[in-house]
């Protein structure tokens, strides 16, 4: 598809939209065409929503999830278990755990993982802030829910090393065979974790 056929302003918008995660040039073109052909008020409302999001949404001062207030809705919720913190890499991971409905505690978003090859060390993610929370909040358990990547595993091991001498329970979420998965297509590491995390009936 040649973008030369479009007016320069439309071409520029398509190129910008195509930089969004999961969007290629075709999807970006469809979105641009929708914005061009929808009622002007609708396009303006979308643009205003983006501007408001950028100016009003920031990270929670306690857990570093996104919010438009001082504390996010989860940290403000009095029904949450304040003694348990689930440590995740990103807000997207927080939302995945939250959608399961299985966790009723609070979170801590690291906003990244340790990645020495990319020069990302402990001072580049929210580890200091986690330790500060342990000193000021009555935390009884830390659940480490970093992803099963080499960086996620390295971050989990680093956190365990930092926290092991503290008087709290440290656990790691289990990884295994997904519901509807097929054993013959399961990778070695997932199979190993599934066997180690097996439970009695």
Can you give a write-up of this model?
The chain is built from 8 helices and 6 strands, in the order H-H-H-E-E-H-E-H-E-H-E-H-E-H. Strand 3 (81-88), helix 5 (91-100) and strand 4 form a beta-alpha-beta unit. Helix content is 43%, strand content 12%. Helix 1 crosses helix 2 (25-37). With 201 residues, the protein is α/β, with parallel strands linked by helices. The protein has 2 domains: 3-56, RecR Domain 1 (Helicase, Ruva Protein, domain 3), CATH 1.10.8; 79-196, Dna Topoisomerase Vi A Subunit, Chain: A, domain 2, CATH 3.40.1360.10. The protein has helices at residues 8-17, 25-37, 40-56, 73-76, 91-100, 127-136, 150-163, 188-196; strands spanning 58-59, 66-67, 81-88, 105-109, 141-144, 169-172. The strands form 2 sheets. It has a 4-stranded parallel beta sheet with strand order 4-3-5-6. Strands 1-2 form a two-stranded antiparallel sheet.
Task: Please outline the helices and strands.
Blueprint: H1 8-17, H2 25-37, H3 40-56, E1 58-59, E2 66-67, H4 73-76, E3 81-88, H5 91-100, E4 105-109, H6 127-136, E5 141-144, H7 150-163, E6 169-172, H8 188-196
Parallel strand pairs: 3-4, 3-5, 5-6
Antiparallel strand pairs: 1-2
Helix pairs in contact: 1-2
Short characterization:
The chain has 201 residues and is of the alpha/beta class.
Question: Which descriptors would you attach to this protein?
Answer:
Dna Topoisomerase Vi A Subunit, Chain: A, domain 2; 201 residues; 8 helices; DNA_Rcmb_RecR; Helicase, Ruva Protein, domain 3; single chain; 4-stranded parallel β-sheet; two-stranded antiparallel ribbon; 2 domains; alpha/beta
